[in-house]
């Protein structure tokens, strides 16, 4: 059923459609007799026209605005909107699977940049970043986009939410380009990253892209219709290696904590440490090592229908409907090992106050597991937006505009196996193991491993089912009234209702020591592949010490074999019924603004825009979560939480913001502008930071305890006081040199804090009576296998202890459940509070130059960003630091004549802090290394209708890397590959 708001929009859409059904087409009018003898004019098209329009947008706007204008209808400069945005000074992008996905502007990350579609706030959902606010540009194709506008300074009439920038994505409208225009385009895409995964996982070598645009207006100019559609398929892959769960520690060189540190001088094992960390140094040790290969297939469908009706010259109505669907299927196989952090390990270290090992090795008394993990899952994201706009010029001095829309974004599983899953299999044949971090690729050595003697068998597994839906209902009315001779009063009111719902279910089997017998799994289920062949672009891949094999398998077959062997099909399928966690966050905002624009006829004439925006927001949070009921020790280091029942919470909050702004600009001379802007903007906290409801991590750790998270619905938005100054020299129609300085003072930042607390009165067997008895028998605190064997062997049948057999590595299998007399389990609970402030400042230099009529040109920009608030790698406590802060640069070479157009672009982004929590949920930095990429596009106009294109993305085959507290502490390195597109476009 539709709401009254939706029905109103639909009725308007139908009314406009009726007027367009009999729309007559017409060709472009021929030149009249009055103009036939006029002198010929030079018509600028293609790249030059785009550059000129972009400069006009920048020059004629209030405040500091940058943008990109399409070269022609249906021909945007890049195939991905995020990759277009990165060409703008101050804009950096985050890449996923080699493609631009989210943007950072002037050091403020994706969550603090507001994305609009034709001036309307857009919902966003992303299962890889559940409950964030950052818009995923990979959902939108570029064919129907006419402009990207990046507003870097605040304005009273702009919706709030963008501290870094407000990005307006503008689609084509038929009245903007009268007459009949249509085109079709086809492309063939070759993604070389698809060639670097296992043969059994590869997609198609070449995939298609098809797009089309139709736009027409009636001969009398009263009716208009535009329709655009595109379908794009991409088969790709990426290979990644590293310590995805981070490092254990950091520890102090002089301290002994739970036996988890290096042997002290003079103790057994200390002789195996080369250049031992100093007593006052902080050091970290590896937790696990992982190599994985992933094959990704994507199908993206976009479409937009726009209807316009102008019954009289002064009144224009527009109804538009936008649809996008992004379907992604992922297959992943990996090899991983976990370390026991034994105090008798062998290691070598660099010098320094904060260090991680150059090499690290462990020897075990009994064989350990080698994990062979596989995943096969799919997701689907759909975006829908229905909107209506009415613009009325009531009089020569008064303009009124009404705009409303209902938009949704929805992401969920598109596979019977859920939105994310993993089958963990294992061979219990690992003997001595060594890691070498001195090369680009971390080198894992396991010389004694024998998978023939200990065949691969099923271990633990999980099947996640995530779902997220975001809905925005928005209505805005604005007006512009000319007063006096040189002033204009702008005012308006608006209402926005935003709702974000996220649900989550997890079916997990914690049989990490082996789910069934190895004999249940025929050897032909697992295929051996050369591990080094997947990382041939990374230094060290050809090392003779690298373990030689990565095993792949058919997920569906192994899942079925495991479920049959266990005798429980439901345990190996996701829960599509009642979710474990169900959280909804709703924000209702009422707003009003007033601004006065004036042209001042002073000694140095200037223009001013002074305004204020007032907003009142009500927040409501509803959450259903799953309480913990017990803690069970099932394997060497794993303590899964048993869940049961349901818990609910409801929280309301509200806040008001008054946001002043002033924008000044003056023409120092006809080709030179000086601008100054000051004002306040806000950026709202992420949905997961606001949503109530306590969520427990599914598995606690023997040594570090449990993890939990809870949001804070009473969080206030981050408020930024901004100052911007810009000097712009437009020394040619297509050329500009500009310098800009900006400073942002941010308050009410939501700092993430970790609170150690007990939850639900859960007891852990670690430290209990059975545990102490094992220590008294001679087991070391770090030898958890010894402790488990002792308890299962001596207390089987006692309360909480159940031995179920013997695992493949000879260790006893079974469960040890926490008893009421055992210690209370501590949880590291993540929560948020408005307790942080920060300053960000920086400068931009931008040059765009065309070399006369030669056809050659260049675009170059550099952005410097600085904040005194930096992450302190020597501080082990939870810290607040701004994410995404980095310098960036672009260099683009251009050539264009009537037949050819060529662009070569180099984009560079310096190292930046990507997260303050590692893959295991601990407080630790995650840095992304500096990255540079070369892209190439070539166009050839066969005639005025037919053109051909060739594009190459990541032509330099750049790889990506992230590290931890030290530059040598590799967290992951990723190898993908260039992708090439060849296409044709025909204009009718």
Overview of this structure, please?
The protein is globular, with a radius of gyration of 31 Å. Strand 9 and strand 10 (about 225-240) form a beta hairpin. The chain has about 1000 residues and is mainly β. The longest helix is centred in the first third of the chain and has 17 residues, at about 5-20. About 10% of the residues lie in helices and about 55% in strands.
Protein topology:
Layout: H1 4-20, H2 33-36, H3 46-60, E1 65-69, H4 81-85, E2 91-96, E3 99-105, E4 113-117, E5 120-121, E6 145-151, E7 165-171, E8 181-191, E9 207-217, E10 223-242, E11 247-252, E12 273-274, E13 282-286, E14 288-312, E15 315-338, E16 346-348, E17 354-355, E18 359-362, E19 368-395, E20 398-413, E21 420-430, E22 433-436, E23 443-445, E24 457-483, E25 487-509, E26 526-530, E27 549-553, H5 555-566, E28 581-600, E29 606-625, E30 628-633, E31 638-643, E32 647-669, E33 672-683, H6 687-690, E34 695-696, E35 699-701, E36 706-709, E37 718-732, E38 735-763, H7 769-776, H8 784-794, E39 801-806, E40 812-817, E41 824-850, E42 856-866, E43 888-896, E44 900-909, E45 912-917, E46 923-928, E47 931-941, E48 946-953, E49 960-963, E50 970-975, E51 979-987
Parallel strand pairs: 4-7, 12-16, 13-17, 36-41
Antiparallel strand pairs: 1-6, 2-3, 4-5, 6-7, 8-9, 8-51, 9-10, 10-14, 10-50, 11-13, 14-15, 15-19, 16-18, 18-22, 19-20, 19-21, 20-24, 21-24, 22-23, 24-25, 25-28, 26-27, 28-29, 29-32, 30-31, 30-40, 31-35, 32-33, 33-37, 34-36, 37-38, 38-41, 39-40, 41-42, 42-43, 43-44, 44-47, 45-46, 46-49, 47-48, ...
């Amino acid at each position: 059923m539709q709401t009254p708001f939706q029905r109103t929009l639909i009725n308007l859409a139908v009314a406009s459609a009726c007027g367009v059904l009999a729309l007559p087409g017409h060709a472009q009018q021929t030149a009249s007799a009055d103009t036939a003898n006029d002198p010929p004019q030079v018509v600028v098209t293609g790249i030059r026209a785009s550059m000129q329009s972009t400069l006009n947008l920048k020059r004629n706007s209030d405040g500091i605005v940058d943008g990109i204008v399409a070269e022609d209808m249906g021909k945007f400069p890049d195939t991905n909107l995020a990759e277009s945005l990165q060409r703008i000074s101050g804009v950096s992008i985050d890449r996923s699977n080699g493609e631009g996905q989210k943007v950072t502007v002037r050091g403020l990350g994706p969550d603090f940049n507001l994305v609009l579609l034709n001036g309307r706030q857009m919902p966003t959902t992303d299962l890889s970043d559940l409950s964030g606010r950052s818009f995923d540009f990979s959902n939108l194709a570029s064919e129907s986009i006419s402009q990207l506008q990046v507003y870097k300074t605040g304005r009273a009439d702009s919706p709030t939410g963008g501290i870094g920038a407000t990005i307006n994505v503008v689609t084509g409208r038929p009245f903007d380009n009268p007459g009949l225009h249509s085109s079709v385009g086809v492309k063939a895409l070759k993604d070389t990253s698809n060639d670097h995964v296992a043969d059994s996982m590869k997609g198609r070598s070449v995939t298609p892209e098809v797009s089309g645009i139709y736009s027409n207006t009636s001969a009398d100019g009263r009716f208009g219709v535009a329709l655009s559609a595109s379908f794009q398929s991409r088969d790709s892959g990426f290979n990644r290696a590293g310590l995805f769960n981070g490092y254990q520690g950091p520890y102090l060189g002089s301290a002994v904590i739970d036996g988890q540190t290096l042997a002290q001088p003079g103790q057994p094992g200390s002789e195996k440490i080369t250049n031992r960390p100093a007593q006052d140094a902080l050091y970290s040790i590896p937790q696990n090592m992982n190599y994985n290969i992933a094959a990704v297939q994507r199908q993206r469908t976009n479409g937009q229908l726009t209807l316009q009706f102008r019954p009289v010259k002064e009144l224009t109505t527009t109804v538009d409907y936008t649809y996008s669907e992004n379907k992604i299927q992922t297959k992943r196989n990996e090899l991983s090992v976990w370390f026991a952090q034994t105090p008798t390990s062998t290691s070598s270290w660099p010098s320094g106050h904060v260090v991680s090992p150059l090499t690290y090795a462990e020897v075990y008394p009994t064989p350990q597991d080698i994990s062979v993990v596989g995943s096969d899952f799919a997701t689907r994201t759909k975006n829908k937006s229905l909107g209506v706009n009415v613009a009325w010029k009531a009089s020569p001095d008064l303009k009124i505009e009404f705009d409303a829309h209902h938009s949704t974004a929805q992401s969920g599983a598109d596979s019977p196996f859920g939105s994310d899953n993993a089958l963990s299999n294992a061979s219990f044949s690992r003997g001595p193991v060594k890691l070498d971090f001195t090369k680009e690729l971390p080198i894992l050595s396991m010389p004694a491993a024998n998978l023939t003697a200990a065949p691969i068998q099923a271990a633990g597994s999980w099947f996640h089912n995530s779902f997220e839906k975001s809905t925005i209902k928005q209505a805005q009315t604005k007006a512009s009234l000319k007063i006096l001779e040189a002033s204009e009063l702008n005012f308006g009111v608006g209402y926005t209702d935003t709702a974000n719902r996220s649900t989550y279910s997890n079916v997990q089997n914690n049989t990490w020591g082996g789910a069934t017998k190895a004999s249940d799994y025929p050897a032909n289920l697992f295929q051996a592949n050369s591990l080094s062949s997947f990382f041939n672009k990374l230094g060290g891949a050809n090392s003779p010490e690298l373990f030689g094999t990565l095993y792949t398998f058919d997920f569906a077959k192994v899942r079925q074999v495991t479920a049959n062997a266990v005798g429980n099909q439901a345990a190996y399928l996701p829960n599509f019924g009642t979710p474990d966690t169900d959280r909804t966050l709703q924000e209702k905002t009422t707003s009003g603004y007033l601004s006065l624009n004036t042209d001042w006829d002073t000694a140095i004439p200037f223009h001013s825009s002074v305004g204020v925006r007032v907003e009142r927001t009500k927040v409501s949070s509803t959450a259903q979560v799953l309480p913990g009921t017990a803690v069970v020790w099932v394997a060497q280091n794993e303590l899964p939480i048993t869940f049961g029942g349901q818990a609910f919470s409801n929280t309301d909050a509200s806040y008001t913001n008054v946001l002043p702004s002033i924008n000044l600009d003056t023409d120092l001379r006809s080709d030179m502008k000086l601008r100054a802007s000051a004002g306040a903007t806000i950026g709202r906290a992420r949905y997961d930071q606001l949503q109530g409801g306590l969520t427990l991590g599914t598995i606690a750790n023997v040594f570090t305890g449990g993890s939990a998270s809870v949001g804070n619905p009473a969080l206030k938005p981050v408020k930024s006081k901004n100052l911007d100054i810009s000097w712009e020299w437009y020394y040619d129609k297509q050329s500009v040199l500009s310098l800009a300085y900006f400073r942002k003072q941010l308050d009410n930042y939501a700092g993430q804090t970790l609170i150690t607390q007990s939850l639900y009165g859960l007891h852990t067997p670690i430290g209990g009576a059975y545990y102490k008895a094992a220590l008294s028998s001679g087991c070391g605190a770090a030898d958890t296998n010894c402790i488990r064997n002792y308890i299962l062997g001596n207390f089987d049948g006692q309360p909480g202890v159940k031995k179920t057999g013997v695992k493949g590595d000879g260790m006893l299998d079974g469960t040890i459940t926490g008893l009421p007399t055992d210690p209370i389990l501590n949880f590291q609970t993540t929560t948020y509070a408005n307790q942080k402030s920060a300053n960000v400042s920086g400068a931009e230099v931008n040059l765009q130059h065309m070399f006369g009529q030669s056809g050659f040109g260049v675009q170059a920009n550099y952005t410097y960003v600085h904040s005194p608030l930096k992450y302190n790698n020597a501080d082990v406590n939870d810290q607040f630091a701004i994410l995404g802060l980095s310098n960036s640069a672009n260099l683009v070479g251009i050539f264009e004549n009537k037949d050819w157009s060529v662009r070569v672009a180099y984009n560079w982004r310096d190292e930046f802090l990507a997260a303050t929590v590692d893959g295991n949920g601990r407080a630790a930095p995650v840095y992304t290394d500096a990255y540079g990429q070369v892209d190439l596009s070539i166009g050839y106009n066969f005639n005025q209708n037919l053109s051909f294109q060739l594009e190459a993305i990541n032509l330099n085959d750049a790889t990506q890397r992230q590290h931890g507290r030290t530059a040598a502490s590799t967290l992951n390195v990723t190898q993908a590959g260039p992708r090439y597109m060849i296409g044709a476009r025909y204009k009718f």
